[in-house]
Amino acid sequence: MKLELNPLCGALGAEVNGVDLSHDLESATMNAIKKAFHENIVLLFRKQNLTPAQHVDFTSFFGPVEAHPLGSREGAQAQPEILVLENRADTPAPRNDFWHSDISFAECPPLGSVLHALEVPGEGLGDTLFCNMYKVFEELSPGMQKTLEGLRALHSAEALVMRNNANDNNAKPISSIPDLVSHPVVRNHPETSRKALYVNPYYTESFEGWSPAESKLLLDWLTQLATRQENIYRHRWKKGDVLMWDNRCAMHYAVYDYGSKARLFHRATAAGDRPI
């Protein structure tokens, strides 16, 4: 089956038209969606109305749906594996306005997530940005590519734990910081076989065998390359949007500009493999 796809920008992303995710989709349609997902990194479906069960069912086609390993947020009542992302005047959401790849501090970070907008704070507020980590690596010189392929990096949940425990947001407190986890700086995508840069400024603590100061110089430079305007898709949310992204080859950044305005999203996450 051939889907009707419209590119979202030059760097990554496509809008999928004519698909209602609340229905049981034929295997040919789901396989076409998976192919488009691997080719575009980010997929957008407008005007969707999913129950939590339907949300989980769709996400499970890509991998087993898993809850946040540290219980970072409340889960939906009917589907506890769905993360509830909510902002209200009396219960502000935690900030997420930093470039990151979700839960890279885990031994097996997520494959990707499916985010459903149930209530948005207003036009042009709470945008989410995505960048293409394939392109960052592929545009480097052969010498730099070889250097990075020989490195591993240590990832830490410390920043997330500190954020959740700050008592100024509705995130759930986390009792302890997990041990550091080591991942290759360049990972091989298990579905596309392409190589993607796999570090981020929020969870990557340092390169193995490097000091934090030395690591920061290289990490800052790589982040600057990754987040150039021409490598970014900026999504402007509308109620009913379903947006999914590949956590293995993208970073994202959630703009926190909506203050006390109401915002409600549901997120389902598909389990991934250990990076290699």
Walk me through the structure.
The chain has 6 helices and 15 strands. Strand 1 and strand 2 form a beta hairpin. It is α+β, with helices and mostly antiparallel strands. It has helices at 27-40, 52-59, 133-138, 142-149, 158-164, 212-226; strands at residues 4-7, 14-17, 42-45, 83-87, 112-119, 128-132, 152-155, 181-184, 186-188, 195-197, 204-207, 232-235, 242-246, 250-254, 263-270. The two termini are 32 Å apart. The protein has a single domain, classed as Clavaminate synthase-like (Double-stranded beta-helix, 4-Layer Sandwich), CATH 3.60.130.
In short:
This protein is of the alpha+beta class and 276 residues long. Helix content is 21%, strand content 25%.
What class do helices, strands and sheet pairing give?
alpha+beta
CATH topology, by name, is Double-stranded beta-helix
The major beta sheet can be summarized as: 7 strands, mixed
| Overall helicity | 10-25%
Gyration radius from CA atoms, angstroms:
18 Å
Gap between N and C termini:
32 Å
Strand order of the largest sheet: 1-2-3-13-5-15-4
CATH superfamily membership: Clavaminate synthase-like
In one word, what is the shape?
Answer: globular
Beta content comes to 25-35%
- What is the tally of helical segments? 6
What is the CATH top level name?
Alpha Beta
Low-confidence segments, ≥5 residues, pLDDT <50?
none
- Domain module tally: 1
- What number is the mean pLDDT? 96
The CATH architecture classification is: 4-Layer Sandwich
Strand runs, count: 15
Order of helices and strands: EEHEHEEEHHEHEEEEHEEEE
